[in-house]
């Protein structure tokens, strides 16, 4: 083989090696910083309902990047005085409601748990010692909405409890610490309702674009305006529902469904784009507002 031909073969081999290396690099999955979302979950019947809200969840799930795991902070796991994280490898589906059709109690959402990530969460959160728990699972604040977002139940899912006795700043601060999990592909989901007063719901009211009372509509709009401005002042006001105006007394009579919103807000970055993914009301006074940051 003459010298010129040998040089050409060596050059082609080098190019092929570089091309192969680039191909391998492109094929390797990149670590994507996941968005953080808040879902107004409303009635457990949304698990089986076909309405504008549930259809928006289905479409939303198709747009979201696929997470490595889902961390849910649901309004239905309240642990006064402590914070717990579910460490089970196979969390059970919890039917934590009463008076609904039998078919709803038969639904299972058999997602695996995420014990390793749960233990990592325990290390990440410094504001409070988070205890591991195997006494919970996936409550209806989690599975009724994930059933639409990720119907295959093929993404590991775990829950963090809410210390119901703590103030808004505590929940927001925990959310800030949880943000580190987003860089590992974890989708952080707050699930509650920004306006939630079951005693004041309008039985039989059809889903509507606006609330049927001034206090429900007014509080929802005040939160939206504060989020859109996202200044230090407005963020601090959001930590205390009572600071959002006179309508707060009716809109948030108890903060259980409001606190998950603060976890999502804390885990978001003020520089990230905010999307109001869904706006509207069920039962006249339940705000179904859904949000996405990033």
TrEMBL record:
Keywords: Dioxygenase, Metal-binding, Oxidoreductase, Zinc. Residues 53-271 form the Extradiol ring-cleavage dioxygenase class III enzyme subunit B domain. Coiled coil: none annotated. GO terms for molecular function: dioxygenase activity. SUPFAM superfamilies: LigB-like. Its cofactor is Zn(2+). It comes from the Bacteria. Signal peptide: none annotated. Pfam families: LigB. Belongs to the DODA-type extradiol aromatic ring-opening dioxygenase family. This is Dioxygenase.
